[in-house]
Amino acid sequence: MIQFDEKIYFYLLAIIPVMALAFFFLQIWKKKTQKRFADTRLLKRLAPDKSNFKSTLKLVFLLGGLAFLVLGLVNPKIGTKLETVKREGVDIVFALDVSKSMLAEDIAPNRLEKSKRIVSEIINQLASDRIGIIAYAGQAYPQLPITTDYGAAKMFLQSMNTDMLSSQGTAINAAIDLASTYYDDTQQTNRVLFIVSDGEDHSESSTINAVEKATQNGIRVYTIGVGSAKGSPIPIKRNGIVESLKKDNQGEVVITKLNENVLTEIADRGNGEYIDGSNTENAVEYIKEELNRMDKTEFEAKQFAEYKDQFQWFLAAGFLLLFLDIFVLDRKTQWLKKLNLFNEHDDEQD
């Protein structure tokens, strides 16, 4: 397992392609200038020991040295030991609606981005709970299994979008059924499911049955409503520019609205609560208090420990390459020249 202490220094690597391009254009300019001064054969006689590839080799040493120095500043760390630790917490699954209606912009910037922000802020408040993520629209898709790796959870969360599932619609029942398979029956932890949605459900009767089955398995179902009762059209964008609005079969613009009644009924039947997601701070604070009131169950989790700094190896390699760059001259290496590996005349060797 590798960790990076100062990831911000990765931006310094952008210097390398810039320097490589500058070198490339400099070589082109040099050749054009030399041709205006004299022809190629004359230049070789005037500077017979001028190497054609040493300048490129020096650039490789320079750029390689800089790259290793930047990696040294980032300070990679390697976990040298995998150990099992005891932790106490709750098993939490987040089911995010990724149907097209989540593109509505009645909540800025849109419902999906608002949902992702709420879940991300909830994760920031957790300490030792295990979390999983599900994406659903017309069907449910496992995005991340139960884990204590919050960094990975945020990475998967940010990658979610409305194009990840080909089956459109909103089947909350499929998300609940899939979430029920996430929990480990051998460890009797408190089980919580957060459904983050605008409440549009195309299978309400099946959803109620799924909720009742989930509660029988000890799962508490909370719902977080994202959207407005007034509603909003669904923009269809290309490269960030709105091209049109989604229309129904009759050619009328579709207005999608937050359905609080559906979400409230799901939460009531699931022994949970409906939470208004319009205010992120209030929603996260309420959820934090709810989770803190729940009994924590001890479970085992594997994690890497004893991370050791590796920056010294990269700094050493960087300084070595820069040191070599200083001592590599632009003229031909005499002992290589004497070998005449390619059986060339002296004035054509490099």
UniProtKB/TrEMBL annotation:
Domain of life: Bacteria
TM region(s), chain numbering: 6-26, 55-74, 311-329
Alphabetical UniProt keywords: Cell membrane, Membrane, Transmembrane, Transmembrane helix
Domain (VWFA) ranges: 91-270
Classification via InterPro entries: UPF0353/GerABKA_families, VWF_A, vWFA_dom_sf
PANTHER family from the UniProt entry: LEUCINE ZIPPER PROTEIN 4 (PTHR22550:SF5), SPORE GERMINATION PROTEIN (PTHR22550)
Protein name: VWA domain-containing protein
Organism for this UniProt entry: Flagellimonas oceani
